[in-house]
Amino acid sequence: MPAYTLDLTVPKSTPKSSPVERELKIREGVIVRWSVLIPAGHMAGAGMRALYGLEPVFPAHEDAWLRGDDETVVMEDFWDPPEEPYTLTFQAWNEDPLHDHTFYVRLAVLQREVASAHQLFLKRVAKEISDAFLKAGGWV
After folding, report:
1. How far apart are CA 111 and CA 44, in angstroms?
2. Which H or E run includes 4?
3. Which end of the chain is more exposed for a tag (fewer CB within 10 A), N or C?
4. b or e along 43-64 (b: 16 or more beta carbons within 10 Å of the residue's beta carbon)?
5. What is the per-residue pLDDT across 81-126, written as a single tens digit (0 to 9) for each?
6. Has residue 139 got a pLDDT over 80?
7. So what's the pLDDT on residue 114?
8. Is residue 74 over pLDDT 70?
9. CA max distance for the chain
10. Distance between CA 107 and CA 14 in Å, rounded?
11. Angstrom distance (rounded) from CA 86 to CA 26
12. Phi and psi at residue 47, to the nearest 5°
């Protein structure tokens, strides 16, 4: 599973209206996991997002920015790009007037065929676990 990484440092006092931008080129494959380390000190005063062209893909809705403090955000996904290779644009802003902040981005990417099999396997396992709980609880 190829991993792509990006350390996105945002200078202090970078407004949301003029975010820092960095591109990440990905040769091929489906993104199956997004992981972003937000170190202590951010205090939700900085935000980041990933775009494909003008379309937000992480977080996926238009006005959303990933914010937090001293946490790692992990999202399992199956984001299949419309073409390969492809480029994601990462944007970030920082309201903190005293300190720069960095987001540490990690992406897990699988070939389309492998990712499809992986997704099917996970759905099957989830169904079996759900069925086992329903049966154990007497609901089936």
Report:
1. 34
2. strand 3-10
3. C
4. eeebbbbbbbeeebbbbeeeee
5. 999 999 999 999 999 999 999 999 999 998 876 666 667 667 777 7
6. no
7. 64
8. yes
9. 58
10. 25
11. 5
12. -140, 155
Cβ neighbours of residue 102 under 8 Å, at least 6 residues apart?
Answer: 7, 8, 9, 10, 39
Tokens of 132: 């086992």
The HSE-up count of residue 98 (CA atoms within 13 Å, CB side) is 3
Who has greater pLDDT, 117 or 62?
62
**pLDDT for 6 beyond 90:** yes
- The domains of the chain, with CATH numbers, are 3-111 (2.60.120.260)
Task: Give 60's contacts (C-beta < 8 A, 6+ positions apart).
Answer: none
Q: Return the structure tokens found at 140.
A: 């089936």
